[in-house]
Amino acid sequence: MHIELCGGFGEKGRTSVAISGGGRRVLLDAGIKVGASGPDYYPVLAGGINELDAVLISHAHEDHVGALSWLLSQGYGGRILMTSETLDEAPATLRAYADPDDFRRFPLLKDRIELFEPGDSLTIGGLSIATGRSGHVVGGVWFTVDDGSRKIVYSADVVPDSSVFVMDAMPPCDLLVFDASYGADPVSGAARAQAIAEWVAARPGGCLLPTPLSGRSLELLAILDGPFAIHARMRVSLAAQIEARAALHPAMVPQLRRRLTDAADWRDGDPLPSCPLLADDGMGKAGPSATLLPLADVAGYPILLTGHLPAGSPGEALHAAGRAGWIRMPTHPTLSGNLAIWEGAGRPVALGHSCPPDALAGLTPHMPSLRVDLRTGDSYTLAS
């Protein structure tokens, strides 16, 4: 089996891998890189787009699906597979992050998409592809690709210890391509959640919490204690995520329902509320937060960023200037989570995605089989 590292290796963004085996070539995810431009914005597909037999998307965040309209604009005409939740969210992501002309000419038409459920097994020629719940977002999955003799696990984005979402265990494999977003960060999700709750409580006059519409929004709902507001356009999506009960820990469902019911709706033009305000997206590049970040900054309204801050994004600029706080809410594995994944996979050769080289190197004392020399554009072959 042969794997091409099309994006997200030695960098954060444009996460994408192509795997060849069993007479077929499949692309897992097609993301964009926020803050980049030109060819660096899109995956590197040295093997050619027309040689792909299928594209499978793990979830609808921009660094995993944002290049799909571009891929279609380059002539891709093959199969596209994703879960129904990913299909529901992907058009909004593409509208925000795809080239406008690509999105106008190649919107995500439902009749082009083949749907599967997390936990389904798929067959693409001689490749068997298993899926499992990622613990990252509703409808998010990891993939296992098996040609009958060798097996590759591609985690996409996963959260082994989420208090909200369920992650299925990944199987033993010959090559593990894992979510190294946080490098060797040892701080638990529970500790970071407590720090966020304390930061918010210390600002009783209100604050802005930019957040992705899917995934981290429910994690924040679960930890906020007291009244809060959401941008009104988030409510329908948040309610649908809460009702996707197979993706959530059962005990969290009634709690999240109550929290959403009690949340106030904030609309464009309203005064900034004297309570926490959640608005998407998490970087200020799109959605309501693109308008709210500068509005809050001018008003001196506290801002807390809780996710990745790409270079050149509005959130990163405000944080660099000391005008926004930052406490990362873990929506990717910390050190203990990735070690458990690697151990459970049988300590195979490992490639970490979504991580800069210096942070990835911090994992090598814990994970001796980790390859830190490979970058986007490189490839790796598994002997039969």
From TrEMBL:
InterPro entries named in the record: MBL, Metallo-B-lactamas, RibonucZ/Hydroxyglut_hydro
The organism's place on the tree of life at top rank: Bacteria
Domain Metallo-beta-lactamase stretches: 13-199
Any Pfam family matching the protein: Lactamase_B_2
Gene3D superfamilies: Ribonuclease Z/Hydroxyacylglutathione hydrolase-like
Designated name of the protein: MBL fold metallo-hydrolase
Organism: Aminobacter carboxidus
